[in-house]
Each structure stands twice: as C-alpha cells, then as structure tokens.
Amino acid sequence: MRHCAAVAAAVVLVTSAGLAYVNYEYYEGTWDALPNFNALTAAHAGLGAGFDIGLRDQDDNFGFRFQAYIDIPREGAYTFYTTSDDGSKLYINTALVVNNDGLHGSQERGGSVTLTAGSHLIEVTYFEKGGDNVLYVQYLSLIHISEPTRLRR
Questions:
Q1: Can you tell me the distance from the alpha carbon of 56 to that of 145, in angstroms, rounded to the nearest whole number?
Q2: Could you tell me the CA-to-CA distances from 84 to 20, 28, 87, 116, 148 in Å, in that order?
C-alpha cells in the first residue's frame, strides 16, 4: 500500500449485505514471493466483484493487486484473514496486517488491527506461480463476521 493517492474513488468493499466492486491490477510474471507491483506495469486493470482472481488471462505465473475501501461500522479490534495458494498480503491504511507470502499450498494466515468507525483503505496483493488458484479474504470482529470473499477458480 504504497500509493494511496493512486486509488480511484473505490467502492465500499465488504458489507453485511455482500460484495462490492474493487479496483484491481493484473500482472504476469514468474515469482517465488510477491513482487514490488509498483515497479511493474499491469497487463490490465479495472473494477471487479470482490477479490476475483478469475479475471486472470492464464492459470499460472500471474499476480493481482486489489484496492478498495472497507466500511467499518464501529471502532474496535478487527481480525483479517487471507487464504491463498500461492502468496498474499493484506494491508489496511498502508499497514501490513496479514503476511501469507511465499510458495505454498492453500493456507490461512491472519492478523489483527484496531480501527475507528468509517472507511479504511484495504489492499490485497496476490501471486500464483503454479498449482491451485486460491484467494479468500475475510475479517471478523466481536460485532461482525464477514462472509468469505472470493475466489477459488
């Protein structure tokens, strides 16, 4: 989450009613860990429904950067999770919250952060070298549990 100013007026991402659209950038390349997407040129970009890795052009050797705003209803501690094959990271307001990077089968990692009520920038980065294509993103708090947001394709 290095260039917050580059995010267009993104839509609320996760609500109790379901998914909204998020900004995505799609990349192609071969990596063993998440690359510096700021140093790469996206093959294409746009709006997608949730964290939709189905927007890819190939099944291996690709990556995504997703950015949107999440509407937090109440101040409190929130735990975010990614389940991915291969690597992923999740940032809130440019701070790393979940580090699930590297080459691995589908695995879940989580991290917690205290947030104020209101909109917060969320960024999820993901790459796939080979094998299954898996990315799920969730969060929970004592006041709200989200449904998993996509996708495994």
A1: 28
A2: 20, 17, 6, 27, 12
Q: List 66's β-bridge partners, or say none.
A: 24, 124
pLDDT in tens, 68-118: 998 888 899 999 999 999 999 999 999 999 999 999 999 999 999 999 999
Q: How many CB atoms lie within 10 A of CB 14?
A: 25
pLDDT digits (tens, 9 = 90+) for 1-18: 222 222 333 334 444 455
Query: What's the CA gap between 101 and 112, in Å, rounded?
Result: 17
At residue 3, what is the residue type?
Answer: H
Cβ-based neighbours of 93, under 8 Å, separated by 6 or more: 1, 120, 121
The whole model's pTM is what? Answer: 0.82
Phi, psi (degrees; rounded to nearest 5) at 30: -115, 115
Q: Which two tokens stand for residue 138?
A: 């969730």
CA distance 103 to 80: 21
